[in-house]
Here is the input.
Amino acid sequence: MNSISPTILVIDDEYILRQTMTDFLEDHGYSVIEAENGRKGIEMIRTAAPDVVLCDLMMPEMNGLDVITHVSGEYPDIPVIAVSGTGDISLAIEAVKLGAWDYLMKPLFDMNILIHSISRAIERSQLLRENKRYQENLEFMVQQQTEELRREIEMRKTAEKKIEEQMQVLEKTLQGTVQAIVSAVELRDPYTAGHQRRVAMLAQVIARNMSLDDFSIAGLTTAGTIHDLGKLSVPSEILSKPSRLTGAEFNLVKDHARSGFELLKGIDFPWPVAKIVYQHHEKIDGSGYPLGIGGSEITPEAKILTVADVVEAIASHRPYRASMGVELAVEEIRKKRGIQYDPETVDSCIAVLNQKLFSF
Here is the structure.
């Protein structure tokens, strides 16, 4: 990416709007290229590799949704910001689900919003690329260290000490991977990052009170720290919306558990972190989401994470409302004990709060 003058591709079939955005962006130090339809835009992405794409949704020949789908599949590191003049929120949500990093409504009365959206997209893209390079380097390191360890085992009887040393290195690098993920969430939504930390801490205390083994507690804590990673795919305007969400908006939020699973399943954690994240909104009666599973189908760690998540969400302040109090949180899990929430987990959580082993 060119840090001096990022290149912005503007795809819009309306010449005046293209020219207006081009003039404004060039005045703010960006290099701008233009395309009057989706097909030409795709060709310019292939040849020019822009840093950010601004794409109208309603265009002839190839509409903006098709462009977003193509770019998400072929060039996932290039941010696409959807620009819609229809006023149809469902269309904007569909664009985000297909891979748009943000969306803006035309006409843009405050062009500074455009600058803010582009800057945020460039920062996030850079962070994701750094994370990708970090993971590739980590995998290379692990391969090298594994081969070295194999040779040492064959050569010397002291391999156990060597394994322990290497595992400590891998644990540190794994913690670095988790921290990189947390940083990505915090960059987008600081509230979600704080919520994840509190949920992880509460889940850890609940698990210790239930005498869960240390290995499982470590996996649960890791999963709790990044359980809402999938919210990176949800527009921040929806996450902080003060009024009731529409059905389409709520469905988009509900999809974050699946999105988090997809992002984490390729990381070789020593625990089933991706599975725990996938199940953290499931209920034992099968009324949860996204899988609708229940009972023993849900991992013990996910059952604990579910209760901790509910209690923290009710007892803590949120961007759009004040805390509703620990008492209301306890009442919620006690009322649905054995119905939606695992009884042993509920009992442990209430005991932890009563004994003041955890505070918000």
Summary: The domain at 189-355 is CATH 1.10.3210.10 (Hypothetical protein af1432). The two ends are 42 Å apart (CA to CA). The chain has 15 helices and five strands.
